[in-house]
Amino acid sequence: MAHSFSLSRRHFLVGTSSLLALGAAGCTPYSNDIAQQQVALPPPISPEVVMMYSALPDEQFAVPPVDLRYLDQRYYRQRVHYQTIEEPGTVVVDTANFYLYHVEENGMAMRYGAGLGRAGFEWSGRGRIAYSREWPVWTPPAEMIEREPELERWRNGQPPGLDNPLGARALYIHQGNRDTLYRIHGTGEAWTIGHAVSSGCVRLLHHDVIHLADRVKWGSPIVVLGGDVTFEG
C-alpha cells in the first residue's frame, strides 16, 4: 500500500541540505550523566533477561554483559502485539516512546528500547535499510569536527571496537540511492536507552543491534515516526 507523508522543515526530507549536515552526527560518544542519576535498585530481573543480556565473548570484540541496573525494564527486548499498516520486515522507530519495532507476521513485532537524537537533531521520515556492517569504522563528518575539534584525530576514521560510537553493528539508512548519513547502531551505555542523547542516530544496546541486524533484510523499509509526520491511505 502506498502512503504519502508530510514533514516539517526541521525533519528528515529528501533533498534537504540540512539532512547531510546533521547526518552521522548522531553517533557521538555520550557521557554518563544520566547513569549518575539512576541509582535506585531495579525490580527483580528474570533469569531469561539476564541470559539475554549476558556477555558475548565470541564477538570480534568481546561484549560485556549489560548492566541491568541502568536499563528500565520497559526497554527489554521482547516480542509484542503491534498493529500497523506497515508490511512485515519493516523497521518502525517510535520516537515518542523510544522504541524500535521490527514488524512480523500476524500483528506481532520484535520491540527494542532505543536512544534517540536530542533536541535540534531529531529527524523523521521514510527510507530503507540499505545494508549493515559488523564492527564498522566510524568517520565523523566535517561539520561535526567543526563543532567538536577533539574529533579531528578521527577525520580518516575511528577503528572498530567497544569505544567506537557505532558499536557492534550499524544499519545504514538510504533514501533512493542516497545515503542519509543516519544509522541504527550499537551502544554499551545502558543508561542512554529511553533518552534523547545523540545527535540524530538511533542507538540500541550492542546485544539488541546484533539481534536486529541478524534479522533485517537489506532493502527493508524503515519508517521513523515524528510528531509532524502524517500518513494517508
What does this structure look like?
This protein has 233 residues and is an alpha+beta fold. The protein has a single domain, classed as L,D-transpeptidase catalytic domain-like (Beta Barrel). The protein has 5 helices and 13 strands. The strands form 3 sheets. Strands 2-5-4-3-12-7-8-9-11 form a 9-stranded mixed β-sheet. Strands 1-13 form a two-stranded antiparallel ribbon. Strand 8 and strand 9 form a beta hairpin.
**Secondary-structure content class:** alpha+beta
**Name of the CATH homologous superfamily:** L,D-transpeptidase catalytic domain-like
Strand order of the largest sheet: 2-5-4-3-12-7-8-9-11
Gap between N and C termini:
8 Å
Q: What is the fold's blueprint, element by element?
A:
Elements lengths: L3 E3 L10 H6 L10 H5 L9 H6 L25 E4 L9 E4 L4 E5 L4 E6 L2 E2 L7 E10 L7 H6 L21 E7 L2 E10 L8 E3 L3 E4 H8 L7 E5 L4 E3 L1
Pathway: Cell wall biogenesis; peptidoglycan biosynthesis
GO biological process, one term: cell wall organization
Organism: Pelagibacterium lentulum
